[in-house]
Amino acid sequence: MSETDNMSASSGTDDGEDEICYIMQRAAGGGTLLGGCYQKGNWDSQVDPNLANRIMKRAIELCPSLTDGKGIEHLSIIRHGVGLRPVRLGGTRLEKEKIDNGWVVHNYGHGGYGYQSSYGCSKDVVRLVDEALKVQAKL
């Protein structure tokens, strides 16, 4: 995929409430991810070519520099993929829990925003682990 300096996202589109647009630059020249959709209950792992086309069109409208303004036929596509992202009703679970004689730190249910929230959540996980270790050290 083409490279860009932009990282952009928007929710809801003219194509439907369950379609979104995001453009995420991967680190160290790893390409650019374009997306997406948020379809509750859809666990189909096969790429929908019509959806893929709408995603590419939205990304080019938001960031024409992906193709130097030349349209989706000029995208350098490495592959299409489907990301099945389990989301937890009530939001992400990020907490520590005492189970038997040990501690468990839960960090799941991010849905389609796991990558975007990973840095902030990982800081909270470190804090929770530190808290749990301090409690164990006092025992």
Report on the structure:
The chain is an alpha+beta fold. 28% of the residues lie in helices and 22% in strands. Strands 1-2-3 form a three-stranded antiparallel sheet, covered by helices on one side. A two-stranded antiparallel sheet has the order 4-5. A hairpin with an 8-residue loop joins strand 1 and strand 2. The longest helix has 25 residues. The protein is elongated.
Could you name the key traits of this structure?
three-stranded antiparallel β-sheet; two-stranded antiparallel ribbon; alpha+beta; 5 strands; 139 residues; 2 helices
Secondary-structure-derived class: alpha+beta
Q: What is the H-and-E element order?
A: EEEHEEH
**What's the total count of β strands?**
5
Number of alpha- plus pi-helical segments: 2
Uncertain ranges: none
Strand residues, percent: 15-25%
Mean pLDDT value: 85
Looking across the biggest beta sheet, what order are the strands in?
1-2-3
Compute the CA-based radius of gyration. Answer: 19 Å
Q: What's the N-to-C terminus distance?
A: 53 Å
Helix content: 25-40%
Shape: elongated
Major beta-sheet overview:
3 strands, antiparallel
Task: Summarize, please.
The protein has 139 residues and is of the alpha+beta class. The chain has helices at residues 49-62, 114-138, and strands at residues 8-10, 19-25, 32-37, 93-99, 102-108.
